[in-house]
Amino acid sequence: MEQRGVSPSEFVNGERLWDRHFKLAAHGARQDGGVDRPALSAEESAARAELIGWGKSIGLTAYTDEAANLFLRLEGQEADAAPVLSGSHIDSQPTGGKFDGVFGVLAALEAVEAIVAMGAKPRRPIEVVAWMNEEGSRFSPGMAGSEAYTGVKPIEALLAVRDADGVTAGEAVAQVLARDVNVPVRPFGRPAAAFIEAHIEQGPVLEKEGIPVGIVTGIQGTRRYRVQVTGEAAHAGTANRSERKDALMAAVRMIAALDREAMHPDDLKVTVGMLTVTPNAPSVVPAQVMFSIDVRHPNNKEVDRIDSFIRLVVEAEKGPCEVALSQIAHAPSLMFNANIRILLHEKAREAGIAATDIYSAAGHDARQLHYFCPTGMIFVPCKDGISHNPNEWAESEHLLMGTQILADALWHLANE
């Protein structure tokens, strides 16, 4: 039962929360102060073991599943009740920072530790979760763990994906599970009562407005593609232009046309972030090019309009080459559960913390959970909006305030 006059937020320890960010950052630490901790790597396993140790020290039980999602469970009075989940991810981009994803996991752990310190047992269990492969930098696309958990994609398809070295996600998962110590594997198909994800904003809005907490209203839509252009290798000094099947020139024409089309509206984000050229030799006409396209906008119609344009332009600009377009991800814009958003605002007011509504421009595992159970998100500011960068930074007092709101919200949900 919820105790009157006592709330978990009073027991949240900001120094412990801050210190744990830097302890996890040691796993995959870069010389420039950033973090390179690929999904399902030895570095992530070391960070995972650290989390398990912290959880066990306060009586939490560690579990995993076939996707190597990690759960730290605080038992409730009703053991069979669907648990309340909270967390994020601990894998990073190659040039990552100390807070992206990690804050959500550590905030959830600190919230549960505050509940334990309060000396009360929730009606429902609460589980801290670290989802597998949110970033998608090693195994693409990302959010694989939350997709497996919610049944969005079959586990077999997710585990068949290969990284740049040819290692499958399934092989990497097996390595992670082998490195775990006394962590049982649970089956999929377990229900959840609710999910809340805390995260740094990864944008400049909260910092500019001087507001420490954002209650996330929703996430903008996205489509992601891989484009394979196939031409023919030829000698750079002897092959005339009319004879060439230049895969790179065809790809450049496609990208340039897409860039012109994406100039308006200003909040339409179109990114070509990856491009590989084969054979990538200075005196050889490129035989093959693969590039990525990432499209995002809050209005699904705008995303669909660019989708149609992409399909037309790759054919129109391929010249004598062949082109294969594959869409690897599609996630429409969404609005989070209204009751969860109201609850988060209420807990912010009760704690005397200023909070405002904010829309998420970046994708998160909460997107997948939104279709599975009542879901919400809490944002805290990050300096200059910088993320996926060693200079990524958040202030300790903001992390504390976001975690205090999270703790009170989790306690409320676990006692409904």
Automatic annotation (TrEMBL):
UniProt keywords, alphabetically:
Hydrolase, Metal-binding, Zinc
| Species this protein is from | Aureimonas fodinaquatilis
MF (Gene Ontology): hydrolase activity, acting on carbon-nitrogen (but not peptide) bonds, in linear amidines; metal ion binding
Instruction: Identify which cofactors the protein needs according to its UniProt entry.
Output: Zn(2+)
Q: Where Zn(2+) 1 is bound, by residue?
A: 89, 100, 199
Family, according to the entry, reads as follows: Belongs to the peptidase M20 family.
Binding annotation for Zn(2+) 2: 100, 135, 388
The protein's name in its UniProt record = M20 family metallo-hydrolase
What SUPFAM superfamilies does this protein map onto? Bacterial exopeptidase dimerisation domain (SSF55031), Zn-dependent exopeptidases (SSF53187)
Q: Does the keyword Magnesium apply?
A: no
